[in-house]
């Protein structure tokens, strides 16, 4: 099996290292100091499950890799529409694209048989079809990540917790390509269940992301701080309940209670969400897939979501102003 990891950051490099350890032919595509360090010294993984170092092929030029069986996307969802020149050299006739993204994927309604919105495009995450032109729907394999990693220094990945990467076809069922990928990931020490309908897993994770990510960026608070602040916890509860109602109207059935989801977040402790980390690093915020698309789905399904709307408006403005030059400044 030949796997190309496009965007071999914290998660991508960790998955690539695990797949390489399990026997797959792995090519990591990364730039700047991190890519240079991995190319020179390999990928060093520091983990409570055991440290290891592997030396897969590392490059910043996808043309050196050529067509792969699977392309694992380690990019943020807001980079998908512009990744065409990078991913094109990696695509053969049957190459599958595994998108390990947060939030609502561009393929969400693809193959949702019998639903009134079957094959409807979600404009927030696929504006005018810009993403599906680059990432063909037939190639998509969904992936919900329950794993936390950070780049401790260039070439060194600190694995904090979790090894579960739930996989699934947009059209449901278990295909040979999903089963083969799952076997390769399991051989590398990961958990990789193939879900009959991955949308349920998407919504379970999104219940937390849709509330905690934007609120953490707006308040600069950690997970435990948001859970322990009574008014913020009440807002989180409201946002999660709205998300559950939207999920059920949009073809999902997340079987988890709001209270259990909040308590799980509290146990994470003083962790900064990815959106807060991006804000502090001066990066664009991953708003559209995490909360914007949920607001769009509330409109498409007719499910009211006033709390989600208001938080979406606030985080959108923060994204505009956070790194803008103040008015009158020179």
From TrEMBL:
Pfam families, per database record: ApbA (PF02558), ApbA_C (PF08546)
Checking Gene3D superfamilies in the record gives:
N-(1-d-carboxylethyl)-l-norvaline Dehydrogenase, domain 2, NAD(P)-binding Rossmann-like Domain
Q: Matching SUPFAM superfamilies, A to Z?
A: 6-phosphogluconate dehydrogenase C-terminal domain-like, NAD(P)-binding Rossmann-fold domains
List the InterPro entries hit by this protein, alphabetically: 6-PGluconate_DH-like_C_sf, 6PGD_dom2, KPA_reductase, KPR-Related, KPR_N, NAD(P)-bd_dom_sf
Q: Which residues form the Ketopantoate reductase N-terminal domain?
A: 3-104
Question: What would be one Gene Ontology cellular-component term for the protein?
Answer: cytoplasm
What GO molecular function terms would the record report? oxidoreductase activity
Report the residue ranges that make up the Ketopantoate reductase C-terminal domain in this protein: 197-315
- What family, per the record? Belongs to the ketopantoate reductase family.
| The protein, known as | 2-dehydropantoate 2-reductase
């Amino acid at each position: 099996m030949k796997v190309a990891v496009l965007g071999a950051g914290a998660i991508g490099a960790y998955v690539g290292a695990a797949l390489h350890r399990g026997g797959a032919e792995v090519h990591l595509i990364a730039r700047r100091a991190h890519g240079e360090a991995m190319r020179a010294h390999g990928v060093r993984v520091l983990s409570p499950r055991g440290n290891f170092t592997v030396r897969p092929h590392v490059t910043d030029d996808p043309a050196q890799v050529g067509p792969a069986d699977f392309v694992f996307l380690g990019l943020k969802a807001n980079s998908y529409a512009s990744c065409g020149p990078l991913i094109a050299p990696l695509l053969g006739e049957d190459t599958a694209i595994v998108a390990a993204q947060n939030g609502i994927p561009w393929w969400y309604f693809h193959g949702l048989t019998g639903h009134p919105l079957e094959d409807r495009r979600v404009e927030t995450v696929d504006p005018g079809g810009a993403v599906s032109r680059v990432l063909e729907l037939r190639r998509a394999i969904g992936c919900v990540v329950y794993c936390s990693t950070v780049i401790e220094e260039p070439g060194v990945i600190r694995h904090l917790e979790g090894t579960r990467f739930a996989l699934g076809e947009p059209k449901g069922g278990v295909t040979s390509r999903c089963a083969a990928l799952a076997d390769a990931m399991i051989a590398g020490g990961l958990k990789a269940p193939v879900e009959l309908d991955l949308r349920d897993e998407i919504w379970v994770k999104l219940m937390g992301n849709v509330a905690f990510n934007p609120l953490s960026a707006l308040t600069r608070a950690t997970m435990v701080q948001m859970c322990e602040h009574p008014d913020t916890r009440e807002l989180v509860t409201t946002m999660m309940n709205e998300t559950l109602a939207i999920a059920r109207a949009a073809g999902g059935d997340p079987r988890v209670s709001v209270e259990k989801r909040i308590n799980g977040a509290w146990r994470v402790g003083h962790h900064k969400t990815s959106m807060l980390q991006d804000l502090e690093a001066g990066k664009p915020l991953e708003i559209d897939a995490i909360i914007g698309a949920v607001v769009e789905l509330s409109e498409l399904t007719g499910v009211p979501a006033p709390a989600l709307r208001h938080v979406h408006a606030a985080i959108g403005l923060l994204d505009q102003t956070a790194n803008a030059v103040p008015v009158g400044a020179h």
